[in-house]
Amino acid sequence: MFNNDTIAAIATSIGEGGIGVIRISGTNAKEIGLKVLKNKKNQTYMDFKTRQVYYGKVIDYQSGAILDEVLFFYSPEPRSFTAENTLEIQAHGGVYILGKILASVLSAGARMAEPGEFSKRAFLNGRIDLMQAESIIDLIRAKTDKAQQLALSQLTGRTSAGIFQLEAEIYEILVKIEAVLDFPEEGLPEIVRQDFSSKIKNLSLKIAQLLSDYDQGRKIREGITIVIIGQPNVGKSSLLNWFLEEERAIVTDIPGTTRDLIEAQIQLSGIPVRLIDTAGIRETDNPIEQIGINKAKQALLEADLILWLLDISQPLTEADLSLAKQFEAQKGLIILNKTDLPRKLDQTNLNEIVDWPVFETSLVNRIGLEELEQEICTQVGIGKLQVDERPLLSRIRHKQALQKAQMALESFQAALELQLSEDLLAIDLREALTALAEITGKNVTTEIIDGIFSQFCIGK
Amino acid sequence: MKYEVIVVGAGHAGCEAALAAARLGAKTLIITISPDTIGAMSCNPAIGGPAAKSHLVRELDALGGEMARVIDQTYLNIRRLNETRGPAVTALRAQADKKLYQAEMTLRLEREPNLTVKQGLVTELMVEDNRVTGVALKSGRIYQAATVILATGTFLGGQIVIGNIKYSGGRQGEPAALELSESLSKHGIKLRRFQTATPPRIHQRSVDFSKISAQPLQDLKWGFSWDGLKNELPQTPCWLTQTTPETIALIREKINFSPIKSGAVVSQGPHFCPSIDRKVINFPEKTDHLIFLEPEGIYTEEMYLLGLTTAMPEVIQEEILRTIPGLDKVEIIRPGYAVEYDCLAAWQFFSSLESKQIANLFTAGQLNGTSGYEEAAVQGLIAGVNAVRKLRQQAPFIPDRTNSYIGVLIDDLATKEVHEPYRMMTSLAEFRLFLRLDNSLARLISSAENLGILNQVQLAQRKKLLSEAEELADYLKQTKIKPQSNFWQKRNMINPERGVRLNEIPLRPELSERDLADDFPEILNYSAPMREYLWNETKLAGYLSRQQTELAEMQRLNEIMIPVDFDFIKLPKISEMGIKLLRKVRPLTLGQALRIPELTAADQTVLLLFFSDHYKNSTFALDKVSSDSKK
After folding, report:
1. Alpha carbon B365 to chain centroid distance?
2. In this predicted structure, which of A61-65, B448-452, B544-548, B624-628 has the lowest mean pLDDT?
């Protein structure tokens, strides 16, 4: 599973940025580099100096043809990310060229890296701990400045510190219980269950806080999903385009033409937002249209916020009502568009259908849009998303561990109320601690490790 | 003379080792400095007690050990402790008649076929090609053996300390084994010093019982052994008193005479058994330390003072005692003292208890760094069993820590470095709820059968107990309390909407087994421990099943073997530190390796990935370790 064979992969996201990096790691990184890299004068290198940036050319190992002009540098073990011999080649972005370079490196003796294999090696070589390994996934995936800050703050182990404190407080209680379990007849102070109960309630609140931090962390990393719904021809595509400020969706008044989901990435206050325009959701016999409708429903269920667009110049229909009713449990805004036209919509009963704030806009005249944007930010909590001093958790495993800990603490509370014996109380607290230890990499099981590393993109 | 097994030392470890080996059919010799002190209780005259000591004794008994049977015939009183804290920590404690206990144990050794008892002081281990071949005695006599078990207790390099006086001795009034340490060191075995201490023994007639209170006696129908109590013995209580502010003031005044203060004792003593001097130093504000006055036997007037361990000079001990209610005219028969002794440094033996330096040499008890008769006894049995299995080229018996405290103890000793004498506490087990007194027979019956220490009659009796439990389970499952039954009214409970099966009763916290027995006296036909076993299994079912997955995961890791001669440098990407640690510990299973505390997460991952991938399905015929985990 881990021999020192040399692996290679494209280490930057494909199709992004002007520069692409090919990373080669393992015993023969240098030898492979010497085979595919030439100097300015197309001469073969005799050796690479350590950690010096070279300017040269990369060739196709099979044909000898020059592929690209590149910058590269070599770091011998253990002073590299993976703690192995590492060669990094910076080439000009394009997918085609990077692919050719990688193919050349592979034919010169490297093996294609498995997903996450670089970080896995770094982890196995003791360069980084579990938490850091996870943060690297974040760093790599970070699309905006704030996400990058978060990823970096986690590398310093600040998150772990928050968990450690929580751990310590649970230990404090557990130790008291364990003492009376193992040392009866020693005149130990009696267990005061009420004290435990209030302390644990506090800890539950702390975990709840960490969990809501998690949610913010997720939003910073993955972005927020906003879905636009509404009957055909109420202005959904126009709204999307206003956000995009470019003509990406067709704006038309023929019902049902926007069949598939239109998805766009935008930024609101520095937070990535997935904006999805749904096909008009309505009853239909057309199978192709039905596919669009099903996709739309799925997107709606995953949305952080729903924008329900209504045409103020048309009366409310049964179709409108049944559409909105399906999503009443979710967060949303009601947007009454086309205020430039005569009002025919009776909005008095709107909030009986869904309890969402109501906004009026005219997309044609660009009225009410700034206010709408602000309200959207408020609704999804973007304004509050800050990398602050509280520990932020941003991986699903952290969340699950915290939830497990919280469940154990709830079970502890229940056991206290049922007057269950101390040997059982101890089990709940131990379970909470085992869960918390999972965050800091204390309980490493094959499943967790494989889970983490399978999340890596190739070469990250 | 050539033996198959020689046991050196006849304390609690030595006795169990010798009996187990002999009962497995090996020609066994046990050598003791004094046949008068076989099975002696050097400290507290009691078996079991808090933490997991009684759990160990029940487990030992389930496998065929002797301690439980002997104490069941020689107790002065027997009690259940900690019941209110729950079934996992409910424990048994018996006050022992220490002389009867010794006599009873001595008889059993002397009468055991295949076992020879001899007096002698072992001075040297005979070793050829890193394999033990026998022992040499101070008398010059040499006994040859294929395997040797050392159970030297506090006698190896033993030094008695009282005040600032120090002299050689293994127990007060008995000589130490001085030369043997050197012989061990010569073969590369690393030793260290541990220390333990004992309180003064006083004359019963000097106690004013009117000033102190007797601990209530309990009427128990079942003791330690799964054989059951043969006869209920008349019981004598322990007595309770406590220190006073005067006691504390006096100790503080005289503290410089304490060996721990004067520096006469530097080695590490057990934290869980602090001397009264230590208590006063560490908790100066506490003045009311509990003191138990314990009878030591029917053929002696001596009483033991639990809670008053000290190695202060004798005169000061007397002064201290006289500040305590009931002891104002106390007469000390034996003063308290400390003893320092040689024991093995960490990682000198495998979890089979076989030495890493000398093949066929096994060690048990205080020599392995533990404290307590019970801890010693279980190691004795394991060493005895594994010595014989080694002779017969069978895989060692290494109990799994998910299935017994014996497993927890042995795994801890082989894996972790301890800095003070190790005592078996329930908190050291990950799955405490599974390791109860009441289910120890069910847990270990298949191991007992595989080992073969118990004879067929004994095994059959124990299996009968378990089938009784099955019968009872059936009865509880099939019998219902009707909704309109007066069972509910009698207990001021609301009539349920449907019939309630008897096996649902334990799930109601407000009902006890007593309630069940009152209305369904049929269940009293079943023996008390089996009723308790079933009651607890039912009551705890929810918690047990919650932990089952985790337990199975640990068991799975414990079943992945690492070859005994595996060189850890072969592990790809392992750290230097990791190699060093693993070479020191030499774990025999992946589970054990992962429990090495100092190992980094990265090294753990290497182990996990390497062994679970490469060795999961392969078998190592020579080194395969048998496991007693329930399949």
Report:
1. 9
2. B624-628
B239 and B327 in contact (C-beta within 8 Å)? no
pLDDT of residue A443 exceeding 80, the answer is: no
Number of C-beta neighbours around residue A52 at 10 A? 10
Contact map slice: B 522-551 vs A, CB within 8 A: 540, 543, 546-547, 550
Q: pTM higher than 0.80, yes or no?
A: no
- Closest residue in B to A422 (Cα–Cα): B85
Whether the Cβ atoms of residue B260 and residue B211 lie closer than 8 Å to each other: no
Q: Shortest CA distance to B353 belongs to which of B398, B391, B392, B402?
A: B398
What is the ipTM metric for this complex?
0.85
Amino acid in the structure at residue B597: P
Band the pLDDT of A256: cuts 50, 70, 90. very low
Do B281 and B255 touch, CB atoms closer than 8 A?
A: yes
Report phi then psi at B159, rounded to 5. Answer: -135, 125
Q: Tell me if residue B277 falls in helix, strand or coil.
A: helix
Peptide bond into B234 cis (omega under 30): no
Gap from A175 CA to chain B (nearest CA, Å): 10
Mean pLDDT within B310-337: 96
Q: Quick: pLDDT tens for B383-394.
A: 999 999 999 999
Which amino acid makes up residue B603? D
Q: Which residues contact A36 (CB under 8 A, 6 or more apart)?
A: A58, A59, A61, A101, A104, A105, A108
Neighboring chain A residues of B84 at a CB cutoff of 8 Å: 421
Helix (H) or strand (E) holding A112: strand A111-112
3-class SS shares of chain A: helix, strand, coil, % to 5? 45, 20, 35
Q: Does A445 contact B88 at a Cβ distance shorter than 8 Å?
A: no
Instruction: Give residue A155's pLDDT.
Output: 45
- Rounded to the nearest integer, the mean pLDDT of chain A is 74
* Residues counted in chain B: 631
CA distance B24 to B27: 9
